[in-house]
Amino acid sequence: MASLLLLFFLLMIHRVSGADWGVSYSHSDICALKGSTVTIYCTYTYPTGHQIQEMFWTTGPKMHSEKIPDLSKDPEYSQRLQYLGDKQHNCTFRLSHVSQKDSHMYYFRFITDIDKWTGYPGVNLTVTDLQVESPETVKEGDSVRLTCKSSCALTDRATFIWYRNSQPLTEIGDRNNQLLLQSVRREDAGRYSCALQGHKLTSALSAYLSVMYPPKHTFVAVSPCCELVEGNSVTLSCNCDSYPPALNFSWFKGGTFVGSGRIYSISKISSNHSGEYKCKSVTEHGEAYSDAVTLNIMCVGCPVILYIFIGVFIGAAVVIMVVLVWVKKRKDAQESQMNLSRPNHNICQTSDVKIMDTVYENEMAKQDEEEKRHTGVSAKMNQSKTYHNIYQTSDEKLPESVYEDVTPMT
């Protein structure tokens, strides 16, 4: 009976003492964005006459656990946790740079010189990301709206910053959590994310925006790209820029369809394959033709014949040039020789004329004397004959009797 009374007395003391112990939290559930700083406000009470020896924050303690961990001594929290309370009644603490792994139940525990207490049920912290909602694909020229959302309740004063491929799109934040892209281009494709101004570490889970557009910059690549010799093979490939990638290709030679597929190959080319080729790329959003490329096929042995022809042509040209130069030099030499001999010839010719004139006068004088002895007709015939013989044989030697009668001119 005495033992029962003692047990009842102890229970009454504990109930009274429990009424003086307690921990109060400002919120039982807190939602925070990844990378932000969280402040948990709380107060605690204990019986009068107790002296606080130790107080700390902990996560998920068990009722009958022998040792409850202190977060301030945990390497994962020690650099981010700051106790803002005191040893009286304030137990507020701050946790910075929170992440999803910080999502736990948090409890405040304190120890006095007489007893100890843990504040149940604690505070439930949920850490979440901002999320970007966007259509997966959009066609070039359309408009698209992206939304920055969070499962946490954000204040009306929240200001958003948008990024594309980690580069800011706006220098000044926008109170609107939506980003409107009007008449999108293919350059607008990329990974989009958002953040709260002042909390750039609270970047959102990004969303990739794909912009679909028809084929552009279609062109043909030729391999081998240089000399195409008859009997060898050649490969033509059709290339273009489009999204989604083009899968339908057609080949044309001079406007005539010759094949399909991105690759067009000719195993043994001949002169019949010479001509202009082009390809067409097609997607669900459009089609495009490439510029034409020309295939020039060289026949086997043609290069040798061509080189021989070129050699013969060059050799003939050299011979002709040498002959022309020789003829010109010879002609120039003859003209020079004639120019040098022409003055002397004139002098000699003039002297001969003067001599012949003198001889003629002397001869005529003699004939006049003879005419006195002959008739007039005979004299004229002799005169005419003598005159003709003198001029016709001006270069022949005259009788000495003639030269004896010549008087030198002064």
Describe this structure in words.
The protein is α+β, with helices and mostly antiparallel strands. It has four domains: 20-127, Immunoglobulins (Immunoglobulin-like, Sandwich), CATH 2.60.40; 129-205, Immunoglobulin-like (Sandwich), CATH 2.60.40; 217-298, Sandwich (Immunoglobulin-like), CATH 2.60.40.10; 303-404. The protein has helices spanning 2-18, 302-371, 376-392, 400-404; strands spanning 22-25, 29-33, 38-40, 42-45, 52-59, 81-83, 93-95, 105-112, 116-118, 123-128, 131-133, 137-139, 144-149, 160-164, 167-168, 178-181, 190-196, 207-223, 228-229, 234-243, 248-253, 256-260, 263-266, 275-283, 286-289, 293-295, 297-298. Strands 12, 14, 15, 17, 18, 20 and 23 form a seven-stranded mixed beta sheet that branches. β24 and β25 (286-289) form a beta hairpin. α2 packs antiparallel against α3. The longest helix is centred in the last third of the chain and has 70 residues, at 302-371. It is elongated, with a radius of gyration of 62 Å. The relative contact order is 0.07. Mean pLDDT is 78; it is low at 1-17, 344-356 and 375-410.
